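pipeline/complex-builder :: batch 7 item 3
reading input block
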Amino acid sequence: MKKLKMSIATMLLLVVSFTNAQEKEKMKMDHKMDHGKMMNMNSDPKAEAILNDYFSLKDALVADDSKKAAQEGTKLVASLKAFDTSSYTKEQQEELADIIEDATEHSEHIAESAIDHQREHFKTLSKDITDMVAITGTKNTLYQQFCPMYDKGSAWLSTDNEIRNPYYGSRMLKCGKVQKTIQ
Amino acid sequence: MKIVKIIAIVLLVTFVGIQFIPTTRNQSDSVPSTDFMLVNNVPKNIQNKLQISCYDCHSNNTQYPWYNKVQPVAWFLEDHIKEGKAELNFNEWNSLSTRRKTSKLRSIIKQIENGEMPLDSYTFIHRDARFSEAEAEEIINWVTQLKDSL
């Protein structure tokens, strides 16, 4: 009899702890789903395409490769053109259109200029892309980095938290610091 | 000797001939309410400088001195005006968003700083369009102020 009581108690305990665990698991799942939904909402493939081209352009400038940067500028013009704002609110659409227009102009200039000029335009372009990400979000963790020396202080975005300066390239590769992490 | 004469005549005929090919004049009597000078409080001396050095190619109204009406100079100018206006039209300034204005002002500063604007080919004949060092600095300072106030 005592044995039976013990086993019932154990069973009960097990059941309770099991449901409890399930509850917890569910909560975790809910949380994950929430997060997943957010991630989904925050990842626009066309915005990711723009970001990819932007990062290739940045890498070309880091490598002091003006020719490559010009090519990436041309690609960026195309991916900016392909951007579709229809899934955003009216207000966001207006701001995105403004950003795209500005970014396109800078990319066009980058596509046909010498490296100093490319870097000048890259500065404003970086501001545009940063503002775009604030609206569209991104699936990757980005680092907003900042070089206090170039043109009274200039920022850019990178997928790597290590500094590789696109404004100076090999002349001052590691000048700058991470200003903000964008997730 | 005869060949030189023939060449000279051919050149002369071509030169006279091309004068009859029409070019579109960039001229307008009215200044739209979106004009840079109308919406910004621009000091008189900077107004003058912008008018003389920039407005010929960056507005809807070009001042045409006689040599700008002569071909092939007029063609050359026509092209520059088209390109210049596409890049920046001071007459349409206020139709730009704050982002676009900031962007344009930054480009203006850079272009003057680097001595890229006004174009050498333009100042070559248009001597008064050149910026002295002091003038360039004055304009850059003022434009920077305007940019920071946006």
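note: The interface with chain B takes residues 98-99, 101-102, 105-106, 116, 120, 124, 128, 131 of chain A (CB under 8 Å).
queue -> next item
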